[in-house]
Amino acid sequence: METRELTVVAGSFVGFQLLFSVASPLFSSVITPGYGRLPSTKLTEWNSRLVSTVHALIVGFFCLYILWFDDAVNADPVWGDPSLVKLNVAITCGYLLYDLVLLAFNWSTMGDSFFVCHHLAALYAYGYVLTRGVLPYFANFRLISELSTPFVNQRWFFEALKYPRSDRLVVLNGVAMAAVFFLVRIAVMPSYWASVFATFGTSAFERLGLGAQVAWITSCIALDVLNTIWMYKITRGCYKVLTGAGGRKAKGGAGAGALSSSDKQNHVNNHTD
After folding, report:
1. Can you tell me whether residue 40 is helix, strand or coil?
2. Backbone angles phi, psi at 261, to 5 degrees
3. Do the Cβ atoms of 100 and 13 come closer than 8 Å?
């Protein structure tokens, strides 16, 4: 890994930590008085999700820029010039490391084995991008999924502030979350895997070596399985809200998540692929 990428990973880690511990509390207390009334455990997760949203917006739009304008990567998805992709991946790796540390220190309230698997699978695959500069198109493509994260986090913010699930903003955000989650994590699977299969048997694929091939394919399978599980939970919650089943089950709805399938799923996927 080059000095530039190491610097970006370290800077990303420190920057997101400062955003979590300094900037988020200041900003949040200004935009909503409800922030100061939250219990300490929810304050921690609030700050975590605000950081998650900032990260998602940065890498999500950077990802789209690369897909639209980086001709070298689009022309050669396996060995194209990875300069911009490595920057985006380095930002994400710094964020993932920050989040793993945060989860470790707050395991009793925020710990989730799904997230640990998600983060480790992503770091394992992205490590090859940073160290060898391989698979830039595919690594960048996975980051499209981050565009759904702000909606997931906003659902949790509404719940923390005790918005009723029948509130118009909650319902609109919930429907948008389900739609965007499907578009950027599920609907893209066929085209993504078609591009993957198109590389099989080519000289570019053979040059990767067994290690990179296994890291690429296994991590993608793991991430897509997780995304499918999360999509199922979101869809089920969305159906309950739209049909009114959730509102009848939790009379009044105050404090309930807009699209939660259960209260145990409050922390569902606010992280990266």
Report:
1. helix
2. -80, -20
3. no
Rounded Cα distance between 169 and 229, Å, is 25
Q: Is 148 exposed, middle or buried (0-12, 13-18, 19+ CB in 10 A)?
A: buried
What's the pTM value of the predicted model, to 2 decimals?
0.83
**Is residue 208 within 8 Å of 243, Cβ to Cβ?**
no
Query: In one letter, which amino acid is 27?
Result: F
Neighbours of 78 (CB within 10 A): 20
Contact 237, 257 (CB under 8 A): yes
Q: What is the pLDDT of residues 161-203, one digit of tens each?
A: 999 988 899 989 999 999 999 999 999 999 999 999 999 999 9
Pull the structure tokens for residue 233. Answer: 């939970």
Residue among 156, 126, 130 nearest 220 (CA):
126
Distance CA(184)–CA(148), nearest Å, equals 7
Q: What is the pLDDT of residues 205-251, one digit of tens each?
A: 999 999 889 888 988 898 899 889 989 998 888 887 777 755 544 44
